[in-house]
Amino acid sequence: MQVQDVPLNKSRRQGAARTAEMPWRRYAWGRIKKSKYYYAMFAIPFLYFVLFSYVPMSGILIAFKNYNVFDGIAGSPWVGLKHFRAFLSDPYFFTLIRNTMLIGLYQIVFAFPAPIILALLLNELRHTAFKRLVQTVSYLPHFLSTVVVCGIIVNFASYDGLINQFLGFLGLEPIHFLMLPEWFRTIYISSEIWQGIGWGSIIFLAALTGIDSQLYEAATIDGANRWRQMFHVTLPGIMPTIIIMLLFSIGAIMAVSFEKVLLLSNGSNFATSDIISTYVYRRGLVSSDFSYATAVGLFNSVIALVFLTIGNYLSRRASETSLW
Amino acid sequence: MYKGFGSRLFDSINIAAMLLLVFVTFYPLYYIFVVSVSGGSAVMRGDVSFYPIDFNLNTYSLVFQDPSIWRAYLNTIVYTVVGTLINLFCTALCAYPLSKRDFYGRGFFTLMIVVTMFFSGGLIPSYLLVQKLGMMNTMWAIVIPGAISVWNMIVMRTFFQGIPNELYESAGMDGASELTSLIRITLPLSKPIMATMAMFYAVGHWNSFFSAMIYLNEKAKFPLQIILRNMVVMGEMSNQSQEISGAYAAVTATNIKYAVIIIAVLPILLVYPFIQKYFVKGVMVGSLKG
Amino acid sequence: MAKRKGFQLLAVSALLATLVSACSGGGSNGAAGESAGASSGAGNASTKPAAGGTAAAQQKVTVRWMRGENPSQAIKTDTPVLREIARQTGVTINLEPVPGSNYVDKKRALLATNNIPDIIGLESKEVAEFAGTGMFVPISDYLDRMPNLTKAIEENPEIKKLYVDGKLYSLPITEQFKIQGGKTLLIRTDILKELGLETPKTFDELYTVLAAMKKAYPDSYPWTARGMSFMDALSFGMGSGYGMTYDPDADNYFYGTNKPEFKEVLTYLNKLYSEKLLDPDFAVNTKQNWDEKLSTGKSFFYYDNNQFAVNYNATLQETDSNAKFDRIPYLRNAKGQTRGWLYPKGWLVDNYAISAKTKNPEALIGMFDWMYGPEGTTVTNYGVEGETYELVDGKPQIKADVLEKYKTAADPARVMMSEIGAGLLALAVRVDEGPTKQVTHPDLVRWGEELVADPGAVIVPGLAPGFTSEENESIKEITTKTSVLEQDVVKFIMGTKPLSQFDAWAGELTKAGADNLEKIYNEAYNRTK
Fold it and tell me: Is residue C190 one of the residues assigned to a domain?
């Protein structure tokens, strides 16, 4: 496959630039006319997003209302920023934000690079059958539901579990992994890596197929060793994909798996395991909390979008790859 | 071929690391399989670890006793196939124009789409919308509202962007024949990404249960995951108020639960090698480098 | 080239058209489905003038009935019970089971969008929350036509807690006969005998017994638990309470966790924990871990649902025929009280509500009252006379040939009930566990009888008092704060938070509004008295 990333700035400017004397409207119209087939194609996706994303977005309004079923979304009374104020003024707020964002951050730092490394290592395997095997097996954990994964974690990390048996074998004291707040994030992130590494590498492997093999040949002729090839051919080849994936994980900084946290948290590790979504869940147990939950969700989205926008801006400046 | 000592050392370490990874990721599913074919009391005692004890297939015959499982299998296959086709069609149609730099309004539209990743109106308006469209209790409620995953679409777009413009130009096509260039140039060059997307979408459909549960009313239309999830999850995340009444104390035995997991996972695992050949082929092209 | 361009446009628009038609195809399907449902309803309504015949014909209705499905008893949509209900009451039920694991989400979607089917299974708090919207038929308005439900309410006054602003909006699941269960003390009696230990009668004696077990089996953790599920029963038994607790002596509610008595509970558990008499993993055990420890002789004692012990005995006895978990009487606490923890009367948390939009509420009211009555109770629990049950000395019993048929199933009772479509996990609103009694393990039946006869037997209330929405708001605000503090209970037990800090911690709970919580509970409770 000869697909190779072209220096983006070259083609980026390709669309005829507007000259000073050309009126803006004529310029725009010209470009719209040139793009008419794109528009025709884009019509279905556009309609789709309007209908299934933008129309239901009216539901966000209930964050500013006291939603009740009888009056519906439109008729429920406005309460302004009441729910936001309630959330933000909660003395517990900063603990929740810290716990949520630290998990998100560790996810980016530790869980994000893992599949890339795996993809690169797989790429270096020369035995095809073995490569296939590793690839196939490594993505199996992706198919286990959270409940099952948490059951496995408890089995391994409990006081009598395999890990502590191993520590005992080394002559070390057992550690109460599941009960100690300082271990919670480690357990969470490791299990995320374990569950996602194989599946996550698929996308990078697909990107690897796009690298022109001639580039490797040229590099070999130039006398580049494997390391140099990896860093100067392979890595740049999949860089656009890496950056897009990184931006996505930055956008997902607030999206921590609620189910997993709920199953792994207990009174003892509460100091680090209580996150925004488990907090909202506990409130909802008393009585449903549509408006409050929506307000908190909206708050999360705004924060995530701010992070994503900054990330997108930086990456556009630095690498010419960006989401928009 | 690489001959240096460093290179060989790297190979050895790499292979060792990969073997470790294979063990760590393979064992849990293997364990689940072994438990699913072991006797109930051996499982309860925690005796089973590497090979089945009191081997039997009762758990499977028990699960399949329920005729609704077969029906659910069929439903899942239909939803997965139809859903994935719709996904691929719509996603490609969205990603292709957005990958083109001469598409006027590209930035705006991309932003408009990315925003939907973050702001959604939640369950209530979506439910009302599906109801208004008359899709309630039909397959369309499951496959249409999720027709395009923004994440997948952007990935596809990024891949399309990697296709050099010269290719389109050398094919002698001007900007007008976009559909032809999509079909003749972009798609054939994008087999790996299309295979990946097909797999992502298909696995998503295969594993999904939420929209089916919300939008379908008849048991005969339920996909497999709904029925199986009930067996696996119930009791683990049980509602305390139900437990209080003592009525819900009975939970599915572990070996049956695990049989259910195998039943749910196996078909999709069997499909993977067929899709995998696209990556491996691609990687082989890369590995000609030696 | 121009021709080609035309073709391109055509192709694109054709694709578009395909998709649109796909959508509308779905639309028409859905509409057809809906109108079919509607027409069947309307058809039944119109039978009134058209048939103009007997009362029975007028009563004929078809309704949608949704409820959560427990995986242990699959819900079948064509069962003897459903046929019999249709025959006797004229109501044809289209059952819509929803997997129990996500039933909460489904209910939420339907309630929040005002889309509930004719009959829907709800929890009491959901009924209370949405009753004000006018979504449900007010059952209490029809009570004069429901002698059997009236009788059920008189039998179990706790049902009055279900009233919302003076009205009853739901049909609770009551009991006619129940194999009593509870959170109780199950101990390996064979180990007691082996070590020459007396059956413990007080909590101190329990400690001594567990310590002796640990001494004889140093690798064991004599007492194991699955999370905090034992705390309410144990605290209550020790003369305290875990969270909001009903005090049967004072006939009111109290918040146990910040009271001095609770410190004694924590001190006791902390002692057990530090001497490894209590499983170090008690707070994180999954059900599976827990099962494993009790079925392998790793643990010898638990204070929880007695039902589980039957399975442990079966597993244990495969390798050691003497091994046996048996129930021991509830213990005497330091105050000299004995307080057991028996599961409540009926299943009042589980209710059915009738949609206010239903075409013929009277027919459904009639059907439900029949189901609360003797005939309906027999049908919904035993099935059809001659087909699935017979009368022996005037009492219904599942027929021997039916029992025989399910004997080989993994869980005979549940499979049988699933096929018949009977019992608590199907449609019964007045539950008779007679059929279960016929097939279940004799230990369970015996324990049930012993539990009821235990001098310390206290049947705990199944329901919290009915709150107003303002009260609910206050409760939410308070519990949001207290639930965070309550997490420290585990730390006290483990000793990671020293017990010397208990008083300060209890003070924080009080400051967070624990007293206020008591006030709200008792005010609400007094309204129902």
Answer: yes
Q: Do A154 and C285 touch (CB under 8 A)?
A: yes
Residue C381 sits in the same domain as residue C446: yes
In this structure, the answer to whether residues A140 and A257 fall within a common structural domain is yes
Give yes or no: residues A21 and A100 share one domain.
Answer: no
Q: If you measure CA to CA, which chain B residue comes closest to C418?
A: B66
| Long-range Cβ contact pairs of C14-20 (< 8 A, separation 24 or more) | C15/A44, C15/B89, C15/B93, C16/A40, C16/A43, C16/A44, C19/A44, C19/B86, C19/B89, C19/B90
Does A319 lie at the interface with B, CB-CB under 8 angstroms?
no
pTM score: 0.85
CB proximity C429 to B under 8 Å: no
Which residue range is the domain that position A210 belongs to? 81-318
Is the distance from CB of A206 to CB of B196 less than 8 angstroms? yes
Backbone angles phi, psi at C98, to 5 degrees: -120, 135
C28 and C154 in a single domain? The answer is: yes
Contacting chains of B (3 CB pairs or more, <8 Å) are A, C
State whether the Cα torsion A258-A264-A265-A271 is positive or negative: negative
Tell me which chain A residues have a C-beta less than 8 angstroms from the C-beta of B115.
305
| C134 and C22 share one domain | yes
* Chains touching C by CB (3 or more pairs below 8 Å): A, B
Q: Is B49's Cβ below 8 Å from some Cβ in C?
A: no
Residue-by-residue pLDDT tens, chain C, 529 positions: 444 444 444 444 444 444 444 443 333 333 333 333 333 333 333 333 333 333 444 468 999 999 998 877 888 999 999 999 999 999 999 999 998 888 888 998 999 889 999 999 999 989 998 998 899 999 999 999 999 999 999 999 999 999 998 899 999 999 999 999 999 999 999 999 999 999 999 999 999 999 999 999 999 999 999 889 899 999 999 999 999 999 999 999 999 999 999 999 999 999 999 999 999 999 998 888 888 899 989 999 999 999 889 889 988 998 899 999 999 999 999 999 999 999 999 999 999 999 999 999 999 999 999 999 999 999 999 999 999 999 999 899 999 999 988 877 767 778 889 999 999 989 999 999 999 888 888 999 999 999 999 999 999 998 999 888 889 889 999 998 999 999 999 999 999 999 999 999 999 999 999 999 999 999 999 988 7
Asked if residue C290 and residue C261 are part of one domain, the reply reads yes
Whether C287 contacts chain B with CB within 8 A: yes
Through-space distance between the first and last CA atoms of chain A, rounded to whole angstroms: 27
Q: What is the CA A25 to chain-centroid distance, rounded?
A: 39
Query: Would B2 be classed as within a structural domain?
Result: no
Q: Are residues C103 and C88 in the same domain?
A: yes
Q: Is residue A71 part of a domain?
A: no
Domain count, chain A: 2
Q: Is B247 on the interface with C (CB under 8 A)?
A: yes
Please check whether residue B14 lies inside any domain of the structure: no
Contacts of C228 (CB under 8 A, 6+ apart): A267, C242, C283, C489, C490
Token reading at A216:
């490797």
A267 contacts C15? CB cut-off 8 A: no
Distance, in angstroms, between C50 CA and closest chain B CA?
30
Put simply, whether A25 touches B (Cβ < 8 Å) is no
Number of domains in chain B: 1
Q: Do A286 and C475 touch (CB under 8 A)?
A: yes
Q: Is the Cβ pair A12, B285 closer than 8 Å?
A: no
Q: For C374-403, what is the HEC assignment?
A: HHHHHHHHHCCECCCEEEECCEEEECHHHH
Taking an 8 Å cut-off on Cβ atoms, the answer to whether C476 and A289 are in contact is yes
Find the CATH number of the domain harbouring C114: 3.40.190.10
C273 shares a domain with C171: no
**B254 and chain C in contact, CB less than 8 A:** yes
Q: What are phi and psi of C424, to 5 degrees?
A: -55, -40
Does A282 contact B at CB distance below 8 Å?
Answer: no
CATH of the domain at B209: 1.10.3720.10
Assigned token pair, C255: 């918040």
Gap from C382 CA to chain A (nearest CA, Å): 35
Residue A128 to residue B11, Cβ atoms within 8 A: no
Number of domains in chain C: 2
Task: Tell whether A75 is covered by a domain.
Answer: no
Structure tokens at A184: 């919670």
With beta carbons under 8 A apart, name residues in chain C contacting A92: 481, 484
* Domain extent for C119: 14-178+347-453
